[in-house]
User: What shape does this take?
Amino acid sequence: MRVLVTGPRGFVGARIMDELGPEAIPCPSLQSVDEEGVRRIVDAARPDLIIHTAAISDIPTCESNPEASYRANVELPVWLARTGVKCVMFSTDQVYSGCIGEGPYTEEETAPTNLYSCHKLEMEQRTLDINPDTVLLRATWMYDMPKYGVPNRGNFLVNMLRQPEISFSSTQHRAVTYVREVSGLIRQAALLPGGAYNYGSENALTMFETAQWLKDALSLPVNITDAGNRHHLWMECTRIKSHGIHFCNTIDGLKKCITDYNL
Assistant: This one.
């Protein structure tokens, strides 16, 4: 199978490239490409599948530049869907940022509150309308140790290891997911029927409790303060588990990462 991967040097895309090996085709940068240019890239690559990881995912950046956010997070995936090639698109747990209930949230309970999540939900709806086979993976906050030669922006694990003081909410339930699991399960995800799926770890702990567990597990010198009330972002993953895709829960995922890197 030939798989075109967008964002092939990004945090998620680089690890998917490693996972897929010779099946993976790195997509050129789409930053300044129009719809016709996207079609030319896809026609030249002749992929059986497109895995779209490229995005502007920083919430403040999206708010400060809504046009760039809309182009990256809505228009580009729409153009990819119009090529007629089956797509696996990464979305976000932020689509649950305004849900009324306590959670965990199923795929039907969306209520985005920031521009990034609004654009991601519009992307989901429009790409599914274009091609009902589109697979939409709603990812949690992902973590990993730095990968040589690849940008590794701040994530839960790296921030805990490097920062002397850090804040997490003692009321917010949210999972964090080991990105090596995300990439390791991508072949199975590509076989899913079209639709939206919560794609990541589950977690019964608050973010403060999760951070405290990691601090204790690694005897970290970090001082954890309470960030106050934050909205829940935790996901209920029955749908994806019914297709045989199982992630470790957040704590077991952290244990696996600790073992993998001999932390």
User: Anything to note?
Assistant: The first strand starts at residue 3 and ends at 6.
